[in-house]
Structure prediction request, 311 residues.
Amino acid sequence: MKVGFIGLGIMGSSMATNAIKGGFDLVVHDIRREAAIPHLEAGAVWADTPRQVAEQCEVIFTSLPGPVEVEAVVLGGDGVIEGIAEGSTYFDLSTSSPALIRRIHEVMAEKGIDVLDAPVSGGPEGARTGNLSIWVGGDKALFDKHKHVLDSIGDKAYYVGPIGAGAITKLVHNCVGYIFQCAIAEVFTMGVKAGVDPAALWQAVRKGANGRRGPFESMAQHFLPGNYDPPDFVLRLARKDVDLAVAVGRENDVPMRLANMALQEITEAINRGWGARDSRIFMSLQEERAGAEVRVAEDVLREILAADGDA
Prediction:
């Protein structure tokens, strides 16, 4: 099978190399021809434009910085759409816009071309080693048909839903990571300014409950099943803890924006009469505001955890 790969940056370069190692004949393109030298030396073929890549390949991947580049490479002049043949499949590995991939899907469908969004997670090291998650949105049968190609790029290819679902999953993952980083910066500056050595602080908290079992794992206990009774830790004590942390920040002139926001959320939940329920129940306030209930049946959660080797 001839595979096209457009975009040989930090992530794309390693993914393309792994596709070659997986036994696929690669046609490559990048805005910098020198980026393709290692791939050409490994047997790949160069194409001058995205259109030329598409003309030669049954499956085409793009790995690009964002929506502007994806739109230009796929739908622009000399783009993929001008060369891709009916029956071919296009994957976008970029972190991009769900709206854009849905539009590309519509345009390509008119020409009999299949489209899947497949953003990746694992960073440069994961791309290099193949220890890489690939979150795929689109037709499930197409995912199954091409999974062997995806498996040459990463070891954790998951089907997550219809077209655009992969992009949404990646944005959820990345956004929550940056929110975590803001929170970590906030509370660690509080802890250090209050007098704790940063190395000792980090060494201690990483072995605490939140360090040992990350927030995504703990979702299966309460938030996802909507189960807040009996409590593991009651909400009124959670408010006491956050209130104390905010007070330490105030005493040391450390801004605590996120902690104050959490305190307001917890206080609102207590005013609902939930003080004796599990501390995570304040998360349901956001479900109300969003008009979206985040709920997974307990038997489904058990199946997912067992499949992932966590139960």
User: Anything to note?
Assistant: DSSP finds 15 helices and nine strands in the chain. The first strand starts at residue 2 and ends at 6.
